[in-house]
Amino acid sequence: MKPVVLSILLPALGLVGCSAMDASYVRQSLPQAPRWNDAAAMKAVYPSAHWWQSFGDPRMSQLVETVLASNNDILTAALRSRKAVLQAQLTGVNALPTVTGSAKGQTSKALGAGTVSREFTFELGSAYEIDLWGRLAAARDVSALQADATAEDLFTARTTVAASAMEAYWRLAYINQDMAEARDALASARKIQSLVIQQTEIGSATELEVSEIRQTVEEQAALLSDTEQSRAVVRNALSVLLNGQELPAAEPRRLASHMPEPIAPGLPAELLARRPDLRAAELRLRAALRATDVERRSLYPQISLTGALGGTSTELARLLSNPLATLGTGITLPFLNLKDGKLRVAVSDADYQIAASEFRSSLLAAFSETSTALSARITLRQKGRHLRAALDAAETAAKLIEERYRAGSVELRIWIDAQNRSRAARRAYTANRLEQLLAEIQIFRVLGGPPSTISEPLSAALPGTTN
User: Fold this and answer.
1) Are strands 116-130 and 302-313 parallel, antiparallel or unpaired?
2) Residue 427 lies inside a defined structural domain of this protein
3) Which backbone phi and psi does 452 adopt, to 5 degrees?
4) 275-296: b or e for each residue (b if 16 or more CB lie within 10 Å)?
5) 0.90 cut: is pTM over it?
6) Is residue 12 part of a domain?
7) Which structural domain range is residue 315 located in?
8) What pLDDT digit, counting tens, does each position of 105-153 carry?
9) Which of 33, 115, 298, 415 is the most exposed place for a label (fewest CB within 10 A)?
10) For the chain, what is the total number of helices (H) and then of strands (E)?
């Protein structure tokens, strides 16, 4: 028997000699990262686990924590992570011996005769594949890496959902503030309308001026209707984030006057290595590389040891007293279809190259997002200073023109135009304030929120890997 087994294994050993060892993962040659000024200390700038608290708004913090506890996207990501862990455990179980068993009894009687025969049979069997070439170990590694990647997906989902809740909260605050200012503007326009009507009755105002102020009143009322619709849209978005629950606190009425502590410029590019989406992409890249080892080793003979214990008896009492044990060895020879196997390896290698390309794209996108977010903070603050100065000038001009109108020096149209410019300047300034808050949220988001807290990843001790 041994010479026969050797004659079967020799071609496989030749394959082993001609084949490379397990592919060792080496981090990709990454694109050049941008230099964000001088390198600042990472600990001082990286967001904490509850990074939304840095905005100093307890109601927003309460909203975010409620959303994180009830959001469906996070629940789905958690279930996917759980499923991946179970699949990894199942892959490990598949490497253990499998045991099967059966028992049956049969009674027969010939027609027309009184003779009855009985027969009892039982069988116990087991099979165990010897992982001589490391195929099963590689498969376990692939499952563990995939499970770790889905755990990182959960962190990504939490960061994304938290950022979405914060954005919706500030948009709602902006709309409520804008609505309050729109109501004030409408009330002011109606007061002017009453004044013009009174002046018309005594002959100091014309029908043209009545029409002009009426147009202003109707435009302000229409603007208020648009704002109410915008608020309904944001409220519905928050309801989805909250999984249909009510807001845990009262709606914000104004944008925050407090901004979070600025993240110092000079962020080192290494910070992005802690982003969960990038960690997940790299884990999947490693899994794709390890999958090539699975396909490569699937070309080698698969050796299984089998054992069986069974017996047959006409009497149940004697069935277990004289069992028959058999041992066997099964050998599968997949290398006989070598061309098919090599094609599978080539497909797996192509999958790895695709994963490597996608990882590089993800990293470049992260660089771009971070650079854009940091740039937006600077430019939006500069823009805010200009808009504040423009607002002050517009309000001053509106007051001066009002005084001149009441003194009869200018026409009503000029005063209305001045008020419209003042309101437009205020809306632009408030909108810039919203953009600044959203830019701060974006900075935290592109940094990935807090660093992942996976204490013992399933892939912590993978063989032949280099971080």
Assistant:
1) antiparallel
2) yes
3) -60, 145
4) bbbbbbbbbbbbbbbbbbbbbb
5) no
6) no
7) 29-106+117-446
8) 666 666 665 666 666 676 665 665 665 666 777 778 888 888 888 988 8
9) 115
10) 9, 4
